[in-house]
Amino acid sequence: MSKYEIIIYWSEEDEAFIAEVPELPGCMADGKTYQEVISNVEVIIQEWIETARELDRPIPQPKGRLMYA
Predict the structure, then answer these.
(1) pLDDT in tens, 15-60
(2) Cβ count within 10 A of residue 29
(3) From CA 59, how far away is CA 48, in angstroms rounded?
(4) Which pTM does this prediction carry?
(5) Dihedrals φ, ψ of 4, to 5°?
(6) Which helix (H) or strand (E) segment is 46 a member of?
(7) Do 52 and 23 contact (CB within 8 A), yes or no?
(8) Residue 43 phi/psi, 5° resolution?
(9) d(CA 10, CA 20)
(10) Structural domains of the chain ordered from first start
(11) What separation in angstroms does the CA of 13 have from each of 1, 9, 17, 18, 34?
(12) DSSP category for residue 33
């Protein structure tokens, strides 16, 4: 599972869930179910990273979360 932020919403127009990864420009996936869109976006994130490596482009680090003790 990736550590990138994923925004998921329902699209009436597409009749599908849409997942966007804001930290990776253009990285999006869809799915008919919530579970399917999560599975699809994980594949797309890996493909986005592989393509960036092949093109020698920078790969943003995940934002992560602040930890409080």
Answers:
(1) 999 999 999 999 999 999 999 999 999 999 999 999 999 999 999 9
(2) 23
(3) 9
(4) 0.86
(5) -80, 150
(6) helix 34-54
(7) no
(8) -65, -45
(9) 12
(10) 7-54 (3.30.160.250)
(11) 28, 12, 10, 11, 16
(12) S
